[in-house]
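From the pipeline queue, job 12 of 40. The input is one protein chain; the requested action is below.

Action: predict structure.
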Amino acid sequence: MDYFFYRILIFIHVVSVIVSIGPFFILLPLVKKLNEAREAELDTYLNTFRYAVSLSKHSGHVLVGSGILLVIFGPWTWGTPWIIMTLIILFCSLFFLARAFSPTLRKFQEKDQIREKLTAKLNRTIWIYILLLMAMLWFMVVKPDVW
């Protein structure tokens, strides 16, 4: 593959990482607002939260696709330790993301829910997901020889 096009793939990969991780830092102050929001504001905040999670998911598709192309056309193989570790964390984060946000966001609409508990859970979930994403980012940037 041409060097220029490989660099474009790297650029697309890096931008998709930024779009995948960035919204979660924006969600941290939003969680505090969810805790204090009046009923009229609640749907707006919840929709913003859902949109940010959706944006992260879709940019994750670009991230995975560009990552696959980078391995296929690049100097590394699927057996490279940092690629294996990144893939393991990726699959864990996919399962985590699928179960982490939507069920909790739906509970905000139910009666008799304690909002403080839900926002605490969302806050914890955001930080766990950020840590998973940062671990993947570390493996991709540092490329350590794990074994």
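Job complete. Residues 25 and 130 are 8 Å apart (CA to CA).
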